[in-house]
Amino acid sequence: MPHSAKVSTLALSLQTMHTIICCHVAEVFEGISAHELVKAFRGRRLIQTGRKGKQLWLVLDGQGPMPLMHFGMTGFIAVRDAAEGTVHLVAYENAPKDTAANWPPRFLKLLLHFGPSDSNAASTSCELAFCDARRFGRLKLVQENPAESEVVQKLGFDPLLEMPDLGAFKELIARKSRGAARLKPLLLDQEFCAGVGNWVADEVLWHARLHPEQPALALQPEHIEALHTALQQVVQTAVEAKADSSKYPRDWLFHVRWRKKVGSINGHTIDHITVGSRTSCYVPELQKVIGGVTVHKLKPTKGPKGKKRKQDNSQPDTQQAEDTGSTDAQQGNQHGNSAGSRKHRGHGAKKAASQEQTEAPSTAGKVDKAKPAQRHTAKQ
What we know:
By secondary structure, the protein is an alpha+beta fold. The longest helix is centred in the middle third of the chain and has 20 residues. The two termini are 22 Å apart. 31% of the residues are buried.
């Protein structure tokens, strides 16, 4: 998903445009007809652009609604200078590589033709294409100032535009860190911090030397300060590079994190885990969990009839059980809703007592070889 650096770069590239002289709707957005879009755009002059997090909007003159855009997982914007024929691409990493050579680009949803402010001039000076291969991109027409719309008002702070000071940052973390909140999902929560995407969150945690599954409540003041500094620096650096990844520092995790490949950074091996349903890249040797909480990586194994199951033969992990929804033997006997409880329900109280003893923290890792510990099914 395009992060704040890419959307910010796009906002800057639109500042030179003038009047929308034509609007071509290739695919209707949900809840908006093609006629409504043409009426909202055509003949109106672009006054300025706005952005917060991953939301981008256009401020147009005259009466009428304003467009508010979000690019989803694979949406992107391409801006073409009609006079020079050059294309400025603001996109997610998997945007079509032939976009500049083939115009209009593939996966087109909306094409705006801009012309000079002089109403007598009919020539197109610039074009803006909104494209999306997977159709997750959204466009809304709002009647009020987009900055005051409900969608934008729900967003948290933008690290580039309104980064809170360290004291306020600590308070925000404490307020959002209820129960077992972990850092990676917290950073991806747009109501906490607007504009941080998956790879940006990994990069921030790498520079702060914090584990993606680190419980936020266990952070000490020095860890929060490191997180605060890293968040500012990563976002600012990406924006200064105009979201051009070839210009990112060579010691960034970005360059080795993709497609779950085995790799290393600065001589340290990287690894991939799933946190909050998102693939997370980190360096186990340097990014350790703080506060005495052990986090284990679940490895898929084949169960009966070839079905994949999640197995954890290591020490019990209260944090992990809470996050994945796995239950202990006692819960399984009470509710009968786990695969393990259905399989072993008839083995009697002696089996359940044996398992409870195996899972007790005081005897962790001391499993009776004659009676292997019952497997848990972890639901991601």
